[in-house]
Amino acid sequence: MSVVPAGSIPYFDGHCDTISECTHRGRSLGENAGQLDLARLGRFEKAAQVFALFAPAARFPKGALFDECRRQHEVFLAELAKNADRAVQCRTGADIAGANAAGRVAALLSLEGAELIDCDPDRLETAAAWGVKMINITWNYANALSGSNVERRDRGLTDRGRAFVKEAHRLGIVMDVSHLSDPGFWDLAEMGLGPIAASHSNARALCGHTRNLTDDMFRAIRDSGGAAGFTACAEFVGRPCSLDDGIRHIEHFLALDGEKTLALGGDWDGCGLFARWTGVQDLPVLWNALAARGYDRPLLEDIFFNNWLRVLGRDA
Ligand SMILES: [Zn+2]
After folding, report:
1. What SS3 class is residue 88?
2. Residue 54 lies inside a defined structural domain of this protein
3. In terms of residue numbers, what domain contains 32?
4. Does 210 map to a domain?
5. How many angstroms is it from 112 CA to the middle of ligand 1?
């Protein structure tokens, strides 16, 4: 089995916290010592990355989160402007194809936690105008929309949560269930409003953390036409956290007929990585290991690119 280099591997990843790192550590998006930068993404055959704006609510005074969100959005725009030869913001599938044809990284925007826009359905217009493609209903804290996977875990969507989800759907913004409570997940699934995303979650059957998806949740995402991103985050792969342990999550989801659902969601710059990885540059190791197990290129291209493209590349 020949080893495929990064240059012949497509890459579309659903979650990273790099913009928060750029904002608070003064890192450059172009090149940095973290887990992801444009220089490394540029080595792939073609690359698309969802960049989350993220801020832990407890560290900000009440009412200051939307200011922080706007600040990070400015950083996102400024970093893209500085690196206009290497990356461009994309809102549609046509944008992504155009960026990749020009040899640029396609940069998409998401919000990790609706509290960043004060859980306010009226602020969704602003998010849509910024080109936000996906929003986590919660991060780790419960908010006005729902309980989360670690706080008020028994609480599902509130009335405001349902109104928020409906308005997001109207604006073409995909709801992201990574970090959401289990009742919140099922309330959302029952609303039946199009594709559900889990941008960075693994299989709970293999690693019992509530951040991971049960088999029934994965099937519901699959049946919604959505996608679930395999996360390289060690905590959600589980011990001993080798490459094979990561592949077990991938094979578990594939066995649930997940060929058109499973995608990538590294959580780059958001956590410690499995298999002693240090960043996105390690992904060809995963591609090659899966190829060595007999998975063919069309399937790997779906996991590594096409499944997110189908969910996030729709015209709003
Ligand atoms: Zn996260």
Report:
1. strand
2. yes
3. 6-312
4. yes
5. 7
In angstroms, what is the span from residue 51 Cα to ligand 1's centroid? 12
Ligand 1 centre from 139 Cα, in Å? 7
Q: Is residue 151 part of a domain?
A: yes
Is the model's pLDDT at 2 over the cut of 70?
no
The dihedral region occupied by 203, where left means phi > 0, alpha psi between -120 and 50, and beta the remainder, is beta
The number of folded domains in the chain is 1
pLDDT category of residue 316 using cuts at 50, 70 and 90: low
Q: How far is the CA of 121 from the centre of ligand 1 (A)?
A: 22
- CB within 8 Å of 218: residues ≥ 6 apart: 198, 203, 228, 253, 256, 258, 261
Compute, in angstroms, the gap from residue 271 CA to the centroid of ligand 1. 9
CA of 108 to the centre of ligand 1 (A): 16
What is the pLDDT confidence band of residue 63, given thresholds at 50, 70 and 90? confident
Mean pLDDT of the chain: 97
Instruction: Examine residue 1 and state whether it is found in any structural domain, yes or no.
Output: no
Separation CA 82–CA 23 (nearest Å): 14
CA of 270 to the centre of ligand 1 (A): 7
- Ligand 1 mean position, distance from CA 35 (Å): 15
Cβ(228)–Cβ(265) under 8 Å?
yes
- Please give the model's pTM, rounded to 2 decimal places: 0.97
* Ligand 1 centre distance from Cα of residue 136 (Å): 9
Tell me what the mean pLDDT of segment 229-256 comes to: 97
| Structure-token pair, residue 155 | 């609480």
Q: What is the pLDDT of residues 40-50, one digit of tens each?
A: 999 999 999 99
Q: What is the CATH number of the domain that holds 114?
A: 3.20.20.140
> What is the 265 CA–ligand 1 centroid distance (Å)?
10
